[in-house]
Amino acid sequence: MDTTHCLLIGAPMDCGKRRRGCLMGPDAYRTAGLGDALRSLGHTVTDQGNVVADPFTPRPHPKLVDLEECIAWTTALAHTSEAAMAEGMPIFMGGDHALAAGTVLGAMRHAASVNRPLFVLWLDAHSDFHTPDSTDSGNLHGTPLGYLTGREGFEGFPDLPAPLPHDRIMMLGLRSVDAAERAALQDTAVETIDMRQIDEGGIATPLAAFLDRVEDANGLLHVSLDVDFLDPAIAPAVGTTVPGGATVREAHLVMEMLHDSGRMTSLDLVELNPFLDERGRTATLMVDLVASALGRRVFDRPTRAY
Fold first, then answer.
1. In this structure, what are the phi and psi dihedrals at residue 94, rounded to the nearest 5 degrees?
2. How far apart are CA 297 and CA 292, in angstroms?
3. 238-268 pLDDT per residue, tens
4. CA of 124: how far to CAs of 102, 154, 166, in Å?
5. What are all long-range contacts of 53-57, with beta carbons under 8 Å and residues at least 24 apart?
6. Is 260 helix (H, G, I), strand (E, B) or coil?
7. Which of 4, 112, 144, 185 has a Cα-to-Cα distance from 87 of 20 to 30 A?
8. Phi and psi of 250, rounded to 5°?
9. How far apart (Å, rounded) are the C-alpha atoms in residues 214 and 167?
10. How far apart are alpha carbons 145 and 275 in whole angstroms?
11. Cis peptide before 95 (omega within 30 of 0)
12. CATH class of 5-297
């Protein structure tokens, strides 16, 4: 089996929404044995510790939550992501989903430097396609794909090398999309696969077609895995629970297909709130999913006792 140099990078970003707790995510992944799981598969693992946001000055905003802090995290994470991709496969242990504004931006910069296209697989109940103007909640964890695709309203955020092309994005597992996001997405080439489509036709067929496109383009692939992609019955440690998410088998199948494709070059693990977990079961499941994405087979899976 091919070995990968995995760079574990903590991103304790907890400013993309009002409900706190995601800053504990990186240590929960470490405690759940993410590094050991990857080493057991023959990969080399370097834990680079936690990223720290760039210096910032908080300012009150009539609607947006912690805008300056989110910008500071985006700047720091973009720098870290770009540097890490030149060394191996960064795995960002979050942190809320606003962190993807920085991790994907860094991947975009790296892709531009090696003259290869970047694709993004967004595994999430939500599309996160809002702008600062369209969001009703003011929570910026609902805006990273809006920012990365060049939508308006992100003054103060780092400049993009170029907007992320819509036809290089797949949103998989959607089941809670605001009206403003739905209207904006209808005018794009973003591929959106909701849970009804998965119920009717399965999860493998659309994902296989997307991975074939990445292969045909010799693309890099950033995968952003939100805990709420999973059904809350199996992954309760998230503040944005939406019933009807992916099952354990569907989630493992996605990860196994990613491994088979050999295309994943960077990974986010986001929205884990250990304060809401049950004896670490969500963190443990997320670790198991990463192991599947890095080569663990069905017959190799450990039996868990809770």
1. -90, 175
2. 7
3. 998 899 999 999 999 999 999 999 999 999 9
4. 17, 22, 17
5. 53/13
6. helix
7. 144
8. -60, -45
9. 11
10. 27
11. yes
12. alpha beta
| Nearest CA among 29, 35, 48, 53 for reference residue 101 | 53
221: Cβ contacts below 8 Å, ≥ 6 apart: 118, 119, 120, 121, 211, 214, 258, 261, 263, 264, 265, 266
Locate the domains of the chain by residue range. Answer: 5-297
Q: Both tokens of residue 201?
A: 């036709």
* Nearest alpha-carbon partner for 229 in 200, 209, 250: 250
Kindly report, residue by residue over 147-173, the tens digit of the pLDDT: 999 999 999 999 999 999 999 999 999
What angle separates helix 281-293 from helix 248-261, to the nearest 10 degrees? 30
Pair of tokens at residue 263 = 């295309």
Report the Cα–Cα distance between both ends of the chain, in Å, rounded.
31
Residue 246: both structure tokens together: 């992916």
Beta strands in 87-131 (DSSP E): 89-94, 118-123
Maximum pairwise Cα distance, the chain: 53
Pair of tokens at residue 22? 């995601």
CA angle, residues 67, 78, 143, in degrees to nearest 5? 40
Q: Which strands, in side-by-side order, build the sheet including 89-94?
A: 44-50, 5-11, 89-94, 264-270, 220-226, 118-123, 169-174, 191-194
Residues near 162 by Cβ (< 8 Å), separated by ≥ 6? 108, 112, 150
Q: Which two tokens stand for residue 282?
A: 């969500």
User: In angstroms, rounded to a whole number, what is the distance separating the alpha carbons of residues 31 and 74?
Assistant: 26
Residues 6+ apart with CB under 8 A from 223: 120, 121, 123, 258, 264, 266, 267, 268, 293
